[in-house]
Every structure is written in C-alpha cells, then in structure tokens.
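Dear colleague,

Following up on Tuesday's group meeting, I ran the structure prediction for the two-component complex that the binding team flagged. I've pasted the input sequences exactly as they went in, so you can double-check that nothing got truncated or mislabelled along the way. The structure tokens for the whole assembly follow below. Feel free to forward this to whoever is handling the docking comparison.

Inputs:
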Amino acid sequence: MDFEPTEERRLLAETLARFLAAEYSIEHRNSVAYSEPFHDPVKWRALADLGVLHALAAPADGGMGGAGFDIATVFETLGAALCPEPFLGALLSVRLLAAAGCDLAPLLSGQIRYAAAVGETDAPYDPAEIGCEAHRGRNGWVLHGRKSVVYGGASAERLVIAARADGGALALWEVAASDARISGYGMIDGGNAAEVFLDGTPAAMILPEAGAALQDALDHGALALCAEAVGAMDTAQAMLLDYLQTRRQFGRPIGSFQALQHRMVDLTIEIEQARSITILAAGNMGTDRQTRTVSMAKNLVGRMAKLVAEELIQMHGGIAMTWEYPASHFAKRLVMIDHQLGDTDFHLHRVMAEHMRPGNGPSSG
Amino acid sequence: MDLTYSPEERAFQVEVRTFLAEQLPADLSEKVRTGAELTKSDHDRWHAALNAKGWLATTWPRGFGGPGWTPVQRHIFEEECCRAFAPRIVPFGLHMLGPVLIEFGTPDQQQAYLPRILSGADWWCQGYSEPGAGSDLASLKTRAVRDGDSYVVNGQKTWTTLGQYANRIFCLVRTSAEGKPQQGISFLLVDLDTPGIEMRPIRLIEGGCEVNEVFFTDVRVPVTNLVGAENQGWTIAKFLLTHERTNIAGLGFSIQAFEQLRSFARRRRANGKRLVDDPLFAARLSEIEIDLEAMKITNLRMLAEARKTGAPGPESSMLKIKGTQIRQVLNDLARRALGPAAVPFPSEVLGGNAALVPPDQAMNAARYFNNRKLSIFGGSNEIQRNILAKAKLGL
C-alpha cells in the first residue's frame, strides 16, 4: 500500500504544471479556449515536445507511460490549470490506434492531430448503439452517417472513426479530416468539438473487430476526465478557501461564518472522495474490474464536480458569476465534464447492471 | 501508487482470518449477524479469547500488553472482525482509558488498572457528557472538591454506554472555576461501588437501554485516582477523543451492512420482482456502493498518512463524518428494503415459520433508529466540521 507517486510521475506532473503556469495564464487560456481554433496550436506542439502525449501511450506502442496512473497524472495537472488543449481526443485516438497496431509516432510527436469519432446523436455514450456504416465502394471502403460531438474534431487533421462494417460488426476506420464534412464549434467551457458528416467518405479499415477496443478507449477517456475534474476541483477549492479568508462582509472575513465553514468542510471531504475513487479506477485499469470501477469513478466524480461547481459560485457570490473572475470558468468545466463520455446516470446504470444480473448471488433464503 | 497490502500484511490478514475461523464462537457471531443484544458474559467471553491470543488491546504498545500493531494491521484486524461478525471490542477500557493511562498515568496507575482491563476484571464506562454539556463539553458542571486525601464529587453524567455492566467509570470533573472553562477540568477514576452513586438506564428511541445516566452525591474519591495533573483534564479528553475517532468511520460495519443488504435484495421478492431488479432500489444501492468504495480508499490513504506521521490528524474527523453518513444511508436502505415487514417492535419480531424476513434483517428498523446516534456521538458531525474548519482549512 503506497499512495506516493513514482519519481517519474512526480517529475512529469511538476514539469507540466510549471509549463502550464507559465504559458496558460487564465487570460491567455480564455483568449484561446473561446475563439477559433479553440486551443493554442503553438503551445500544443510545445506540450508534445515536453512528452505529455508520450505519457499517454505504453512503451510497447512507442510511448513512455500509458498506465492508469500516467493518464491520471497528466489529466489531473491539465485540469488544475484548466488547459483547453484537445488531449481527450488525442488519448482516445492513442488507445484506438494502439489497439489497431498503427504507428503512433506522428500523433505522439504532435506532428499530426487526431480525434476519435465515436458518439452519435442517437448514441451519445453507448458504442453498442452506433449506427454509422461502412460499405465497400469501387475504390475501397466508404463511410456513411454522422458522428456527433467529436472532441478536438474541429482542430484534428485525421480522425479515427467507429462504424459498422457492412452494417455488422463494429470496426475502426481512419479518415483524413479533409475528406469528411466537418462542422466545428467551440464548447461552452472552452476547447472545441465537431459534427462529422460522412457522405461516402473514403476510409481505411484499421481494426475489423473493435468492440473491446472501443470500450477500453472510452474507459481510459472517462478515467482521464475524472482526473481532470479532480485537478480542477483542487484549484477551485483553493480559490474558494482563499476568498473565504479574504472577503470581508459585516466587518469580518466571510470564512468566519459557520454556515460557510461547514459547507466548505463538506466540499473538502467530497473532493477527497472523488480523488479516492479516481485512484481506485486508475489502479484497476488493465484488470477485469476496469470498466466497472471507471463507471463508479465517473458517477461519483460527476456528482461531486457539480456540487463543487455550484458551491464555488454560491459561496463566492456575484463575483463568480462574472466572465472575468476565473472561478466561473472552473465551474463550467466541472459541470460540463459530466456531459462527456457518459454522465452520472449512464455510469450508474452500468454499476447497477451487475447487481441486477439474473441468477447472480445466493438464490434462496 | 499501490492499492494492495504488502505480502506481510496479506499474511497477517490470513492469520486473522484463521484465528477468527477457529476461535470466534458460532453463537456469538450469529448474535452479531442478527443484531441480537450481547450480554456481559458474551463480551467477556470474546475479550478473553482475544486476550489469550494477545490481540485484545489493539491500540496499546507491546510493553503494556498490546500487540504493537501498525495502523494498517489494526485496520485489517477490524475489517476481518466485521466480516466474520465478531462482537466489536468494547472500547471504554481498551481503546479509551488504556491509551490515556499509558500516556498520562503514573506507573502505579498503569500497574493497577491496565492488567485488570486486559483480564476483564474491570469493565470501564465513560463519564463525559452531562445534561447541560453535550457538544459544549467544556461547560461541564460535575464538581470535584478537594477534601484531605479525597475529592468529593457531586453532579450528573449521561449517555454512559453499557454502564450497566461496568464496575468503574472515568470522568471529567470540574476542579476549578478559574479561567476558561477548559482550564478547570480534571480526569478522575471512580469506583462505581463507592457510596453516593446511582445509575439509571435511559430508554432509547428503538426501545433498548444501552445508555445510562449516572448521579453523584457526595462521592468520595481518593486523590490518587486523579490521572495527570489537576486541571489537565481537557488535554486528556482531547487525546481520548482523537483515539475514539480513529475507528469511528466504522468502515467494517458499512462493508458488512452493504453485503447483507445486497444479498437480501437479490433474494427478496416484492411486487412481482426481486427487490434488486427495482431500478430505483438498484440505483440507491449502487450509489452507496460507490461512496463506500471511495471511502475504503480514503481510509487507506489516511492510514498511509498516519503510518508516516504516527498520529491521526484532523483528517480523522473527515472519516467520522463521511463514514457515519454512509452507515446511516445503508441503515436507511436496509429499513426501506423490508417494506411492511419492518414494522414489528424489536421484542415482538416473529421467529421460526412465522418469520417475515430472515433473522439478519429483522432488526433493520430498530438499527436505523438506533444508528441515528452515529452522527451525534463521539463529537457530533457538526463539531467535527468545526474542528476541520479550524484545524485543516484555517477558517
């Protein structure tokens, strides 16, 4: 039992945090996060040079990390600084391309930006409901359908797409972004996503049976979002604590009021719970408990991140309603994380499923 | 990062399991599983079995007859005991007074009392709260006035758990009215056979009588029964409360309660389906399972921290708040799981062929009501929040 990070991960977190503190002041962050291309392409390359993308991939796939705690370390640090760069799309692509045995070097070096197109308007979270289809055309496979809310899709040069081969098995395809009709947009909490319209778009099949690889990629994405939320909650908590100690009303710091003290304590406890369940999920990646513990984590983190966001605004008061004050942007990110890769209810259903399985457990008594 | 026990800790876990399988009497674990009341002799029997193994005073150092366990070993022991439905160790002598005497007692006091705690010759109870001093413990009014070689004690203590089995009580008493209220408190050991003491049971919400009130009228206590210096009692009280809080998360009880509830919900049929197939119930069960899984890691993280720093910090208040919240939600779900079968008064619960539910579910309503105490005792959860706001957050 040991909850200390390894020396490598501690260094990674420190290096990344230092870079983000220097390069992504909240003013700069907001200026790039909310206007096209909704991230900073120059700093994205610099982050790749730092080895941040390499930390997301296993050594066998050309990376330098890839374990649950590597991913958690990167995303927790990104979350603490509210970094708007399209790492989620990159992580999903890393997992899918690695499962397909593709060369990851162009992605990991930051040379080519990838995004993973999995969700659809009718299948936002569950890959089993995917409807996009691939058919053999005269010059190879072509894709039909629409992929929805593709994270990093507006800035990606290549897409990994999940679709059904001839309407049957889920498979993975690689597509040049320029071959698809892409409608990109900025997100309410910063960063970009896109709708991807596939109208006979030429595609290369990279993995014919992709059900397990998709679930694994989505698990890793959900873990990353949990860690990102934990990082953002830590910063939000520190910001709020500082405000409680310095903001004066009725002639005293508002943190001297018990009504606020107790709520601040409850927030602190819930953040520790969120951190704990994220540690549990990270530690179970690659085991047969991976999917269920990730769902547990995404559910708990979703509940707690919303609580922290709402209390962050309420306990600050009017100032946290303003665009100028950084807390508002943290609150938005914390709430919107629940809309990505499965919300609290979706993941609760998956945790429930094990209990509701017929014949499970003692049958009489 | 490593979420698993070390090979040594796993070996210890096996050793505890083996001991419990061999030494825990079946009738005792059945009583614990079904929530039946344990008699004094039940407790004594289990304490004696643990003492014979050297595992009774789990928080004491080796030199005083404890096993010298690490916090992690203690946690493993407690978790395994819960899993096996062992009676909990009665804490008043073993987890509360023992550590106080080891820290603050004279060698004479240590020699006089510690062996008797281990042997079961003494059953201690706690005289802290008073009718007018609950959360505001420092306002306590029970007075001890020096008269020659004795203190003369007058006043009233309350919420004295299992006092009906005790022959001695440790008390916080007022020895001075000077200065801040905290500065005039002393820690006194009292023989319950002393003339002038009367103990009366307090009947609780669910009908049971586990707590008492204790009246002191001109009770003469030898000054040698003072622990620490006169007016040092508040320091001792705080030390004791920290020890009381270390296991107050009650994680083992929550794990036990969750497993019992899940297993019951798979067997119970209501309104045409298994209870666990009701999506609303399954959602509540799953949410608390998730909270509990997080709590297990939170607990291990704090154990790892305590292993480094040697003492439980203000974080133990976090464990108390979250741990009791989870237990109370589980008790609530277990009560609701029974539907109308929850209604019989505890002493009227039907047995045999007439039973409404399996024996381990029959006390769910009583347990729910009784365990509303969890967020009140040991420093109410609001007091814990005050402690955290000050000590951890600096507010």
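Chain A has three domains: 7-112, 115-209, 212-356.

Cheers,
M.
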